[in-house]
C-alpha cells in the first residue's frame, strides 16, 4: 500500500470508529502499516532462519509459529538440545502493542526482545558474534541488508531492527469483535455479546483493555486468591527488584486467544474454559456458572483476527564460508 | 489451472522440448499439476502441523524445510528429544520423481514414506493411533477431510494420501538449465555450459539423468575407490537382503543441489566443491582440476528451479478434546 493510500485508509478507519462503539474498553486493531518493505522482507527471512541458532534447527518461528497464532501451543517451549523452557512463549501477534516484551517486561521493545533468544543457551544457544559471522557469509543477505539499511556493516542492531520491523506487521485486524466495534451489529451472536457483557461487568477489562485487550500493564497473578504453580518464575520483581512486584506479570493480550493455548505464564491452563474459570476466581473472586463461562469463552473466540498472510519465505543459501551448524556439539 | 488449460500447457511444453535439447540426458522438469486442490491444501496443512509429533514441535517441514530447499541443511536430522538422526534428510523437492523413497528405497512411494517419520521414535515419535485421535478432535480438519475425500473416517491412509498429494506439487521447474534445455541459448554462461560438458563427458549422467538428474536408480557409493565414513548405514541391502546391495543408495537428485547442502547420505560433504571432488574420485576415478571442479559446480547451480510459492498455511486450532503434546514425557 502506498503511503498516501495508507493515510486514506487510516482516516477512513478513524472515521468508522467514531461512528461505532468508540467508548468500549477494547478498541479495534488498526491494520498494519508497512512503511519499509525491504526491511520487513529481510526481517521475515531472519524470523524464519534457523541459522540464527547453534543447531541450525530453531528459528524465531519455531516458538512463535505463525501457522499457530504466533505461539508454539506448548506449556513451555523446547530449546537447544531439547531444553525445557522456563515460561510459556507469548504470541508474537500484536506484540508491538505491548507496553514491554517478555512476561516480566525486561525488554523495552521488540528490537531489544529479538536479541534475547538468539543468545539464550536454553533457546537458540547461539552467540551474536556467530550470528553476524553467519549472515555476512551469505551474499544475498549482505545485499538485502544494504537494500534495507544502506551502506554499513551487518550488526545485531540491524538484525534485530529488521526482525522487529517484520513483527510490527503481525497485527490481526478484522476479528468479528472488531467488526462489531466498527458498527456491524450482526457480527456477534447473542451469546457472544452476553459473554462480552459478563466480561466487562466482572471487571476483566480493568486489565484486558485497549487494542490488544491486554499487554498494557503488569498485574499480580492471584489478586483475590493465590495462584498455585510449580513454575518458579517471579515475574516483574526480577526486573524491578521490588518485593511488591513478586508474581506480577504482563497482562497477556486476549487477541487470537482461541489459537494461543495453553494459557498463563506457566501454560498450566489447557483450555479457554479452564483459563476463564481460574481468572474469574483468583483475580476477581467470581465463580462463573457453566453457562456464563461458556459465554465468556464464546466472546473470547470472537477476538480471532486476520492471521498474517504472506508467501512462505525462501531463505538465501549458505556459501562455502558459512559456519556450519553444530546441533550435537556441546 | 483447469484440466483443459493444463492439457494445453502440457502440449505446449512437449512441443517446446522437441524443438530444443531433447536428446540431453537431463530433461526439463514439468510444471506441477494440481488436480485436487482441496486434497493438496489439506496435505499442506498436515505437512506443516507439529501436532503429528509427540512433542507438538516437529512437523514434516522441520526436516524438509520448504524455506531451505526442502531439506534441513544438517548432516543428519534432529528428532524427538534431540535424537541424532542416522542419515541425511533428502530434499522433498521433486521427490515424486524418485523411483522409491528413503535412501534405501524402503518406501515404494510418497504416501508410504509419509507414514514413517510420524511413528519413528527418533523422529516425530508419535503413533498413528494418536495422530488420528488428534486430527479427529479438530473440527476444521474433520471438515477438510470430508471435502477432500468425501464421506468416511479419517485414516492414516487418507492422512498420508493428502501429504503425498501436496508433496507431488513440490516440483521446481524453470531452472536456468531447463530454460537452456528448452531452447534459450543465453540462459547459461560459457563456464556453466563447459561444466555441463565435463559433467556429461565424465559419465556423471550415467546416474544423474532424467528430469530429476538422479533419483531413478540405486548405485554403489564408492565404485572406483571405497567411500570412508563412520555412518553405519548399509543402504539398499537393508531392503533386499542381498550382499551385493551393501552400500548401494538411491542416487540423489541434483535439482536444487545449491540449496540442499550438506551432501551424501551421511551429510559429510559440506560444500558442492567437496561433493564434486569426492564423487569424481570415488565413482568415476577422476581428479578434476580446480578449474574443472569450479565449472561443474557452476553448472550444478543452474539446476536451482522455482521454489514452492504458497501462503504460509494457517493450522486449524485444537479443540478442548485434542490430546495435548507431551514434549518432556518419556
Feature tags:
two-stranded antiparallel sheet, mainly alpha, globular, homodimer, 330 residues, 37% helix
Summarize the structure in words.
The structure is a homodimer of 330-residue chains. Chain A has 330 residues and is mainly alpha-helical. Chain A is built from twelve helices and four strands. Chain A has helices at residues 3-18, 37-48, 60-63, 110-119, 128-136, 139-149, 156-167, 176-181, 190-202, 237-240, 272-284, 290-300, and strands at residues 78-79, 83-84, 218-220, 248-250. The termini of chain A are far apart. The relative contact order of chain A is 0.17. The model of chain A has no long low-confidence stretch (mean pLDDT 94). At the A-B interface, loops of A face loops of B.
Number of strands of chain A: 4
Rounded average pLDDT of chain A: 94
* Rg over C-alpha atoms of chain A, rounded to the nearest angstrom: 21 Å
Describe the global form of chain A.
globular
Structural class of chain A: mainly alpha
Largest interface: A-B, 44 and 44 residues
* Largest sheet data of chain A: 2 strands, antiparallel
Share of residues in helices of chain A: 25-40%
Strand order of the largest sheet of chain A: 1-2
Strand content of chain A: under 5%
Would you list the SSEs of chain A in sequence order as H and E?
Answer: HHHEEHHHHHHEHEHH
Count, helices of chain A: 12
Oligomer: homodimer
- Give the uncertain stretches of chain A in residue-range form: none
How far apart are the first and last residues' alpha carbons of chain A, in Å?
Answer: 47 Å
Amino acid at each position: 500500500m502506498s503511503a498516501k493510500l495508507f493515510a486514506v485508509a487510516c482516516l477512513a478507519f478513524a472515521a468508522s470508529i467514531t461512528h461505532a462503539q468508540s467508548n468500549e474498553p477494547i478498541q479495534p486493531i488498526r491494520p498494519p502499516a508497512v512503511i519499509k518493505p525491504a526491511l520487513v522482507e529481510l526481517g521475515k527471512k531472519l524470523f524464519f532462519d534457523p541459522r540464527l541458532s547453534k543447531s541450525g534447527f530453531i528459528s524465531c518461528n519455531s516458538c512463535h509459529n505463525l501457522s499457530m497464532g504466533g505461539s508454539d501451543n506448548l506449556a513451555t517451549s523446547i530449546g537447544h538440545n531439547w531444553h525445557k523452557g522456563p515460561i510459556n512463549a507469548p504470541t508474537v501477534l500484536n506484540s508491538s502493542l505491548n507496553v514491554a516484551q517478555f512476561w516480566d517486561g525486561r525488554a523495552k521493545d521488540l528490537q531489544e526482545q529479538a536479541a534475547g533468544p538468539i543468545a539464550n543457551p536454553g533457546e537458540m544457544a547461539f552467540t551474536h558474534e556467530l550470528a553476524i559471522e553467519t549472515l555476512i557469509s551469505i551474499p544475498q543477505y549482505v545485499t538485502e541488508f544494504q537494500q534495507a539499511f544502506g551502506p554499513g556493516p551487518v550488526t545485531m542492531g540491524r538484525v534485530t531492527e529488521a526482525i522487529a520491523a517484520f513483527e510490527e506487521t503481525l497485527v490481526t485486524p478484522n476479528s468479528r469483535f472488531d467488526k462489531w466495534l466498527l458498527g456491524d451489529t450482526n457480527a456477534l451472536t447473542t451469546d457472544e455479546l452476553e459473554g462480552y457483557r459478563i466480561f466487562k461487568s466482572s471487571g476483566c477489562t480493568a486489565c484486558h483493555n485497549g487494542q490488544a485487550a491486554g499487554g498494557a500493564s503488569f498485574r499480580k497473578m492471584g489478586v483475590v486468591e493465590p495462584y498455585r504453580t510449580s513454575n518458579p518464575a517471579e515475574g516483574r520483581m526480577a526486573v524491578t527488584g521490588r518485593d511488591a512486584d513478586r508474581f506480577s506479570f504482563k497482562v497477556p493480550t486476549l487477541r487470537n486467544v482461541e489459537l494461543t493455548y495453553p494459557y498463563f505464564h506457566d501454560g498450566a491452563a489447557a483450555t479457554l474454559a479452564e483459563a476463564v474459570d481460574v481468572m474469574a476466581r483468583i483475580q476477581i473472586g467470581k465463580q462463573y456458572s457453566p453457562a456464563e463461562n461458556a459465554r465468556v469463552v464464546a466472546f473470547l473466540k470472537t477476538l480471532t483476527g486476520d492471521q498474517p498472510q504472506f508467501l512462505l519465505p525462501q531463505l538465501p543459501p549458505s556459501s562455502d564460508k558459512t559456519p556450519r551448524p553444530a546441533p550435537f556439539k556441546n
